[in-house]
Amino acid sequence: MIDRQRVELLVAVARRYWIDRADQGTIAEEIGYSRSMVSRLLDEARREGVVTFSVGHPLERAFEAERGLVRAFGLASARVCLADPGVSAVETIRLGAQVVDGLLEPDSVLSVTNGRTVSEIAGALSRGRHPHMTVVQALGVIAHDNHLIDSPQICGRFADALGSPYQTLPAPLVVSSRQMARALRREGRVAMPLAMASHADVLITGIGATTPTGDGAIFDGYIAADEHRDLLIAGAVGHIVGHHIDASGRHVDLDFCQRLIAVPFDRLEAIPNVVAVAWGEEKIPAITASLRSGIVDHFVTDLATANRLLLHRPEDSGPPPPPTDPDDTRSALAGARPGALTAGRTGTRRAGGSA
Are strands 166-167 and 77-81 parallel, antiparallel or unpaired? Predict the structure, then answer.
């Protein structure tokens, strides 16, 4: 068993060498030992645990989370912000802008959605002049009073930051009937930007949560109480690029979605670089579903959200439910227990990155 005096010697030699940066010759002169003896004492200090080494950085936690997300969800890349909760939103937005910057080529077509998160990413992009790039709307106009989260203004912000032309989509986000939606999608001024957005090189989007209390800011005023109830019964947990999805990431294609003016759901997976930026406790089910859908290629979030997502690994979700038929959903509503579902008009709640 090593004695106290020996430990004191090992500590003194190790401190002089690794902390004070003295060379072995100097240490040997100070303690009256040979240089080779000093070398043996340093080796002994490591063996006895007097000296320990660690290699790493606080960001390693973010790197580990990124690798975990890529493995768990089959992503092309993930970026995780390691910042205090008070500044994580700002840093996550900055990371999202870096991802978009890195994916864009001089002649890229960039498709953008709406919501606060996407709007703030436009403001965080590195500014430049890209006259051969094009920015295009991925979905129709919200027409709310808050223009900061509406897609035409967001499209213009991206174009201004990139120094590129842009193409707006002159149609509302949701129309009154399936027939009107089909007619609008065939109309030239709507069909052309939709086709461009559907074949974009990069698409940037947030992720919205569908909860018992609502569907988020972009659908405020569009989804009536009975439609919201239908979506919940059909299993909707969130939406991406305007399309509602269930917990397994499948499209919840009810009447509401068929009245949506947006890049078709079945085109989203074919876009080579879909970048989703989202975070927040309330959005965990929606984000998990979006990552399971196969639509998202590049995901940006904060460390708290990443850690929660890694607890909801795809293999833990069980087999997906059978496909939902809109008529079956209506029938289910008729037999639903009174009072089991909220009947008031949906409101707006936001707990993290806004869709």
Answer: unpaired
- Under 8 Å between Cβ of 312 and 306: no
Signed CA dihedral, 219, 222, 225, 229: sign only = negative
Assess contact for 94 and 125: CB atoms under 8 A. Answer: no
Q: Which residues of 186-340 form beta strands (DSSP E)?
A: 202-205, 207-209, 236-240, 243-246, 273-277, 298-302
Name the pLDDT band for 109 (thresholds 50, 70, 90). very high
Q: What is the phi/psi pair of residue 249, to 5°?
A: 90, 10
User: What CA–CA distance (Å, rounded) separates 158 from 278?
Assistant: 19
Read off the pTM: 0.75
Does residue 101 contact residue 93 with C-beta atoms inside 8 Å?
no
The β-bridge partners of 134 are: 109
Q: Which residues pair with 209 in a beta bridge?
A: 238
pLDDT of 86 strictly over 90: no
Res. 173: pLDDT tops 50: yes
Instruction: Report how far apart, in Å, the C-alpha atoms of 79 and of each of 53, 73, 279, 299, 342 are.
Output: 28, 13, 12, 6, 37
**Beta carbons within 8 Å of 24's beta carbon, 6+ residues apart:** 17, 35, 38, 39, 42
**Measured distance CA(266)–CA(158) in Å, rounded:** 25
